[in-house]
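Hey team,

Filing this mostly as a record. A colleague (T.K.) asked me to run one chain through the structure pipeline before their review meeting, and I want the input and output archived in the tracker in case anyone asks later how it was produced. No errors, nothing strange. Just documentation.

Input sequence:
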Amino acid sequence: MLIRTLHWTVPHYWIWGLPFFLFFSTRFSQLLHERPNQGLLKALLCFILSPMRVGISKFIESYLLWKLPLEKYGLKPEHPFAEDYASCQMAIMPENFFSEVEKGKILFEKASKWWFCNEGIEFEDNTKVEADVVILATGFDGKKKIKTILPEPFCSLLEYPSGLMPLYRGTIHPLIPNMAFVGYVESVSNLHSSELRSMWLSGLVDEKFKLPKIEKMLSETLKETEVMKRATRFYKRHCISTYSINHSDEICNDLGWNSWRKKDWISEAFGPYSSQDYEKED
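Output structure:
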């Protein structure tokens, strides 16, 4: 198994006996993280609570290092867990993964560069790994695919002006008319966020609300980009996980829905938000 960049993985959704959603998926937990347009009071609160944010990340890391033999196999990332979560790169460890490692059925090789050779794979230090089959589990670059579809000048505008696609409400590019991009901006639950954005897009098409001016939409997306940059070094992943509830609130407000979806304030503050909380309102 060739590893280019180490990332944190979790064995399940429990940390030291506590459900994982308590740390990132409630309104209270997301108060610890910066969000776009959060206002002075929320910004001050976020700053005051920043030690708690760091502490939660280390709390989760301590469990993962205890539960999984990451240090034994040189798989401990150098960056905080919170940065992986903020870039939607937290993965669930397959069942029995490390038991197979212990048996010698899975071997690790860390390298930033490699290439094919007659025997299999060769690395920068001239070492080789013999292989009959090489599986490239690299994901895909959606931006490149979009660039092959769009004609000029829109193709050149995709990453203007921040280097990331400026998608208002994660859907509309202010400079590309008559086109929407559902599912491009990631969250921890892509199906949930894409479904909600689809409802938002349907409302836009049905003229239930109007888009702001182009300048305002670009300004909003730039603020989101700056938040992502401060949250993680992997900000180009374009992920809203640390302020996903705020993102959903904005969509609800555009649609004229109540953004607070729970039945009582305790559930609202400490309950996890999921797709079931966003049933379509007439």
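Quick notes for T.K.: The longest helix spans residues 50-67. The chain has two domains: 2-130, 142-278.
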